[in-house]
Amino acid sequence: xxxxxxxxxxxxxxxxxxxxxxxxxxVMRSWPDDTIxxxxxxxxxxxxxxxxxxxFPFEEIADELYRVTAKGGVVVxxxxxRIKNGRSLTSFRQAIYFQEIGFSAHDIMIYQKKNTxxxxxxxxxxxxxxxxxxxxxxPATFNPLKVPTQRHGMEMLTHNKLPDGIxxxxxxxxxxxxxxTNIWAYAVGLGGTTSDxxxxxHPAVFPEKLAEDHILSWSNPGxxxxxxxxxxxxxxxxxxxxxxxxxxxxxxxxxxxxARQRLSESGWSAIVQHAS
Length: 276
What we know:
Layout: H1 2-7, E1 17-21, H2 24-29, E2 36-41, H3 58-68, E3 69-79, H4 90-100, E4 104-113, E5 128-135, E6 146-148, E7 155-161, E8 167-173, E9 177-179, E10 183-186, H5 208-218, E11 224-227, H6 234-241, E12 245-250, H7 253-265, E13 270-274
Parallel strand pairs: 1-12, 1-13, 2-3, 2-11, 4-10, 11-12
Antiparallel strand pairs: 3-5, 4-5, 6-9, 7-8
């Protein structure tokens, strides 16, 4: 499988995608250490949906992700909790395990769903999932996404500490842009998550813009991006659109075919391999 990683880094005019049908743990075990710059994935947590009957060996996946992640690399883990007789807290247990095996919990981010259809009779409507940004050491890349400052050009009071430790107030000008917060809101459903109808043949699709924003934040053009449970291929599509190489793995041949077709409809070709 080391040849697969090399194939995704060929010197071509366009970025390359490799889709692998297989158990991601077995596939990653054949890869060298410190290989992947960025992983963006959303696992099938808490058996909330039916994924062709396949199991989810979380700890084995986490262990292999730590080994193959390059120093300074990042794993973005988009996950929620089962809500039945209270929350399962699966998301936090997984984050703690990542930390225990060596990852740094670089950031805990919120994916806010703007138009969630799920209501609860005895609690507030749940409208978020966690996005754990786990890094192997200090992230080697951070390209902060910006938003316009609402009142740019206006004056505000700033505080400068003088050598003697005294704070001195002075007027300063607000900048035109500021770094986004770690709460990101996206519409869900057709037209929000994606306009690719084929993607909804998969039971759980996360927003294209969510994947793109993380890809832009934690990687650079030419970097290799992984999704070890790639489903309908959202991470792959956004990686390719932003000049990154991509490897997607899924144990379901049906889901890999959906991802391949989706990439094809977006103008990208993908090499499909079957793990032995």
